[in-house]
Structure formats: C-alpha cells, structure tokens
Amino acid sequence: MPVNAPPAPSGVPSGGSDAVHAVLARLQGLDGLVTACLVEPDSAFVLDTVVGKPMSDADAGVDVSDGATVAATISAAASDVVQVIGLMTSSLGDPDELEDVTITFGRRHHLITPLPEAGVDGLLVVVTLDRARTNLALARQQLRALGPLLRHAMQPPAIEPGHVS
Fold it and tell me: Which of 19, 109, 121, 124 is at 20 to 30 A from 79, Cα to Cα?
C-alpha cells in the first residue's frame, strides 16, 4: 500500500503511481522481506512502501503492524548513510559509483540500492530482510533488476499520433 505523504519533491514521481507500486510490489516475492521502500535520499521522502508477509503470526522481530512508519524510519537512516558514503568517496577522489550498501544485524539485513537506471537521479530502494529467511545474493540481484522496470513505470504514457485529448 503506498504511503500517504505530501507531494513528492519536484522531478520525483508521485508515490501514488500504480505502475511504480506494482514494480516495488514485485519485492514481496522475496523470501524474508520485512519492508521495501522507494526513497528520494536528499529529503528521505518515502515515495512508496510495501510490507512483506510474515512467515507466521508468531514471527519474531520488528513489529511491522505499521510497516510504513518502520520503513520511513529506516529510509531516513539509509538516506544519511548514502550521503555519508558520498562525502567519503568525494573526499577520497574516488570516481566509482555506489552499487549498494548491505548492513547486517543479528536478525536483519538492510539493503540500500541506488537506482540510476530508473531515470530519476537519486532514487534508492531500501529493503529490510529477515536474515534467517532470505538469500542475500538473490535479493541484491532482484533489487538491481528494479531500475529498468521503474524507468518504464515512471515514463508518461505515449500519446498516439493523431490522437487529440
């Protein structure tokens, strides 16, 4: 379910886009998904959120009953992490681009993946995974595949020649 939020910063797609939500919802197929967010990192604005399905009602760990709030908190922290890494690499003169960030805790993995392929500079996907139920390599691969899908979902529909609106 998309997060209800104020309008997105200029140049960033609206969080209410069904096509963008459908692309992000593909991550619900990841084993162990807790939350996934599409984030504008400069403002930590959460454009959309999907919440994973718990393995059982007794699934331990982060309470995701309000998944949007949990995801927004994690996304704000992820935005800070990406900014710090950007400062670090620029001060070192390193021209390399950030591929992703993996933060591992005892029960959770947090993946932060920039999506330059999405066509909007600066978008991130921030995913929290249950470490016991996920394949980290597969999750990273599926996150990288989202960029081209999001680019397609965010493009305005083509107007047919000769069609008057």
Answer: 19
